[in-house]
Write the structure tokens for this entry.
Amino acid sequence: MKKSIKIVLPILLVVGAIIAAATYFFQHYNVAVLNPQGDIARQERDLIVFTTVLGMAVVIPVFAMLGIFAWKFREGNHKANYRPEWDGNKYLEIVWWGIPCAIILVLSVVTWRTSHDLDPYKALSSDVKPLNVQVVALQWKWLFIYPDLGVASANLLEIPEKTPVNFTITADAPMNSFWIPSLGSQVYAMTGMSTQLHLIADHTGDYRGSSANISGKGFADMKFTARSTSMAEFHSWVGRVRKTSTTLDQSGYDALALPASLDTPMYYVVKDNDLYDRIVMKYMAPMTNGQDETQNNTNDKSTPSDHGNPGMMDMPGMEGM
Amino acid sequence: MDFILGRLSFDSLPKELITQGGAISIVIGGILVVAALIYFKKVGWLWKNWFTTLDAKKIGIMYIAIAVLMLARGAADALMIRAQQALASGDAHGIVSSDTFQQVVSAHGTIMIFFVAMGLMFGLINLVLPLMIGARDVAFPFLNSVSFWLFAAGMILINVSLIVGGFSPGGWLGYPPLTELAYSPGPGVDYWIWALQIAGIGSLLSGINFLVTILKKRAPGMALMKMPIFAWSVLVTTILIIFAFPILTATLGMLGLDRLMGMHFFTATQGGNPMLYINLIWAWGHPEVYILVLPAFGIFSEVVATFSQKRLFGYKTMVGALFAIMILSFIVWLHHFFTMGAGADVNAFFGIMTMVIAIPTGVKVFNWLFTMFGGRIRFKTPMLWFMCFVVTFTLGGLSGVLMAVPAIDFQVHNSLFLVAHFHNVIIGGALFGYFAGLMYWFPKIFGFTLNERIGKYATYCWLVGFLVAFLPLYALGLMGATRRLDHYDGPGWQMLFVIAGCGVLIICLGAALMVLQLIVSIWQRKKNIAGSDPWNGRTLEWSVPSPAPFYNFAITPTVTDRDNFWVEKQAALKHKSTAKLQYEAITLPKNSGVGVIIAAFAFMIGFGLIWHMWWLVVVGFVGVIVSVILRVSNDETEYMITAKHMEQYDKLYKLQEPTV
């Protein structure tokens, strides 16, 4: 049996090393998806763990059989029974059609239920009044409009803890995906579409948010901070923004929408209640001039956009409004 | 000038140091190869013996040669991606600009799928399928040549982008509106479209060719249920190709019309719908991954039975599983975009359908394992590839089932977790299968076996390198790292990216060992003469001499059993056959250069469309049509070998064979 130890030992060492490394990482760094900070992300984490454990019911027997059969029926082992003509067994095959079928049946029920429970479009049940946030993916920054509060911010999402947040998401850019791993689900941001997402944060804290779908040159910089604060702090933030920031009107928005990444977050007062709807409808309305799309992007620089520069104000792309 | 050159100008040449290096090395490499061919007076030989051949085995070798070349290109891209991401943490921005990085990522994916995986797949099918079913050739030998040369034209086109114009920055599937004129006006996306369009038509033609070959050219007695499983896997693959590739052609065609003629199929504006594109491309894209992996399953079925020296377990179940996978693969495409906002019912349906595919796939794994049970297993390199495959593919299957649950997918979609998953199944599933097939059938094609020791070291390097390269990506995905980032600032990410980079280096060591294996094996070829049956094989291809004669079978075999050759060998042990060999006259296709010419014109169409050289497009179109008409009006495309000559050839081939 000495030879078998020679084979088994390195395998055990490798598996041990992988587990040790994974544990080290989990302790020292934030493995966001497995370290949820909100109810949605927590349910999704639990689902990952459940499915992995269930899958092990197939993975472990397969690995074990591979090792044992290979060892037992190696050519040099003449003690093993050689049956070259044995090519089937009804009962055995029923077993391994049956086991995966049973596992998938269980998983199907779980899938059906969780697909509905964790549907991004489903509003969260809570006693707290939800906060509405309109998300616009731009080239290469995120604009967050708080329609009920009359403020907006770019690349910083301020939300109160323990409060359901109802996101409606669109894009004035190539397709992006709006994702805050610590809080849960991502949803695509697309032109002319308004998708929805419902999340909640359990505590206060800063979480990474980014785009998960490639959207051009500045894609890697398309990230933001999702900041969860106490309700009181959130309201004082809204007050500060209202007092100190510039107003985001159409021309200000057009300047912000120019292709460029944004190094520091921006804050705005929004008096115009229809801004988000106009951004969505812009792509739905017929154009008078088919060339506009291309001109929109000729100004393709990657320095932060100079917000409010009068030279950039008469941009095309406003037709149909 | 604009009329002649379209939008091509000096500005189209690469501007970054690294892309210039790539361009220059391609140009110099090309010049050196051509110069060497002229110096050694091999141009005529190459044209007569290779370029114009209609012999499926030679076409197969050329497919594999291109695939290996493109594997080197794709691996260079992979190294650049790993180097960039190992360095570009925090304020560092790595070795290339974001634009170049995105082109490299797109090129890596496109080349690996279309020109490496598809190339190896068609190469292996060409090499062994006719031999395996007892046929002299494929159903349409000339069409086969056209398919190959279209594939080659697509390959050249995609590499020309490195020299002039750059490549698409839109990812390997080019989602609009990013790939529309509004956001990507340059020629890069057009290179992507037209290279795939040309190669894709070649793939479709190949699919038709091999389906007909299997249905019409089997040896007498070989009922469908007596075919080797590899032939079944090819049959199912060709059906998938025939249903899926027209979708790709139509989708790329519409994107091309958007870009060339200002249409609005998938634009953001004026009623265009990018979501339609995403549905269509995955309606092709999901069957495509099964097109890649099913032939690998077929190869493993042959390898496991041969090296276990035992019949394959559960033949009928294996066939049933292939068909189940074939049908299911067409009703799961939506799982690539659960996050697009479809309702919970739709998501749940497609999620469950995806999991259901795991059932027949799992059954296949169990059947392979029980083929080993009760066998006498010889751990030759192809068998080692199989064992590595079981490890990696099972892990990939597990992560696949995870991602099939929509609520989990919401958290890992488009992250590096996804990247790790599909490399897990494409490298650990398809590529390992092709490697097993290459090492398994190499002696049949070249007449000598490959060096076992180096081959085993290479296999270990691939397995270890694979795990080191891709397990960190699972972790990175769970940490929130998305795919295709040219720089990042996540804490702890860099260490994992560096580890992944080391893994890729180990894989490269494995690849280098494979090259060494080939060189050493050629060096020692006299010592390692294979004989017709080096592995104690079971199927018809091992009954003919190695290297296989150009006519495949001197006498068409008659099939009585699934493992026909195995059964014949056992019968021969009992009583020697004394029947006199009955040779017959056969006809074979003459060589033809028209395939090369058609592909050259197709290349002109592609290049003209990319650079808006409309005259070149017209020349190309007319050229293709005229070539086809000339070819079909030629009635003398075959030649005959008389029975007497056949007998002489057969004796000659058998003389070369060592008697084992």
Observations:
- The radius of gyration of chain B is 25 Å.
